[in-house]
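[step 3/7] fold_predict: job queued, chain A
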Amino acid sequence: MDFENKVVLINGATGGIGAAIARCLAREHCKLALVGRREEQLEVLTREIQQQHGTCMYKTCDVTKKQDIEDTVAFIKEQYGRIDVAILTAGILVPNPIETFDTSVIKETMNTNFLGMVYFIEFIIKIMKKQKSGTIAAVSTLPDKRGVPGWGAYGASKAALSWFMESLRAEAKLKYNINIITVKPGSVQTPMIKDLPRRSAISPEKAATIIVNGIKKEKKVIQFPLTQVIVVHLIEQFPSAPYDHLPIEKQKGEGYPIVEEK
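[step 4/7] structure written:
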């Protein structure tokens, strides 16, 4: 797939992988629509891309509000006349330790990481079905098959998204010529993990390059980096008993908050 002259919507564009993808695509001569909650960051990034002679606009949006998402997608369609590619990167990472088990954390995480993406897909796919073409790429996570202590809310939201994207893929392609791509990154040095150091984390710029190249090749699943892919896939093969005996603090990772029993 060639990005030239394509209308590309990117949500979660105020930082991290989303902003890096926007900068990467600024060199591809496409028409960008940046979406996020923080208007100041969106405005700065839009101006930066425009100064590089790229076509770019932005729209603020809260991904937990369905009406907000519907209005945003309609606005972008009205401005550009179509939407060819949607790259959905918005998400939150909130620990939910067993000591302070709190369903409000799970609800917030599911609303943002899963339902927020599904709402975008609902309104974008209507446009792409009429076009008989399009690509939707949504960012899930690499370890989406086994639970990780302390990260149940995040993992459940991303596992749900992976499953949902896979359930759409074949039918969307065969009936409407829409490519459905699941992006599964390992650790990436984004603001989301600034207090959770990961020695093997890659830069957002490297992640963006991998994602853009994967979309160009119309891959069904984009997963990276290779070393983490191998490790995660090996861990997935562990039977439950030995897996449960892996050191819990190691699984949680550095920087996980120490909490008192609630």
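[step 5/7] annotate
The domain at 7-252 is CATH 3.40.50.720 (Rossmann fold).
The radius of gyration is 18 Å.
exit 0
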